[in-house]
Amino acid sequence: MPVKIPDALPATRILTEENIFVMTENRSAAQDIRALKIAILNLMPTKEKTETQLLRLIGNTPLQIEITLLRTGTYESKNTDDDYLNMFYRTLDDVMDEFFDGVIITGAPVEKLDFTDVIYWNELKRVMDWADSRAFSTLYICWAAQACLYYRYNIDKHPLDEKLFGVFTTNLTDRRDKLLRGFDDHFIVPMSRHTTVDTEDIEKCDDLIVLASSEETGVALLRSRDGRRIFATGHSEYDRDTLAHEYFRDVNKGLDIRLPRDYFANNDPSREPVLRWHAHASLLFSNWLNYFVYQETPFELSKLASRAKGGIKA
What we know:
Radius of gyration: 19 Å
CATH architecture: 3-Layer(aba) Sandwich
Shape: globular
Order of helices and strands: EHEHEHEHEHEHEHEEHEEEHHH
Oligomer: single chain
Number of strands: 12
């Protein structure tokens, strides 16, 4: 089944060329079916690339999904044209009274700042409160995962001695969890961050379940016991060349940046990176959408508020 997105969104053409099943708004209007309503708060500076990466994974599921793109209202993006944002994006105030089946909150390049020093921190707290009351399950990615762990559980992030940069083998810690159905024992996750959260802090919290981790990355995937909050500390949505763009950008700036680990073929930056993580990325998103959203959320979204309090059944 397709992902429903605006006719004019650039991702429509890109995904269609990749044989990803998308449905324009005009075509969707002719169907008598309720699509899942998923909101994406896009905090990344390269909004077009990020939305395409996420839509690619969301569109690879057997569900029809209606996407609402959100941006911050208290901070204006410096890398995306205002006309583009006004055409395709809404703010929290625009959707405050609406219900959604699920919400995705992306990472952001602000991890070196204290959370309270981030310009839109108060707005993000409002978004997280809104998601808890107006959506059934929320997927937090990278910095957003750290932000929610801090806001909800008082688990702070800590600086790393050097940037965690590359693709890393991650190990399952709970093979029986529905979010991991179909996963191999080990899978690859791209990482690009300067901070981490301590595994010991997470294990002390009774509401959190660690699903995947490694000695190098720490906790890579976890969730709340009721399934309403999913945390991914890496970037499984990244394209083949995303880390390469980041590496060469920093090299051209003269910054001290190490080669991304186990990423380029034979660790040769002149060669094309090897794509080894998209199969599990697709599985992660489809499992979340199926088991933690579609199977649980009510057909009438107005009933979602009372239903959401019960969480996901084990």
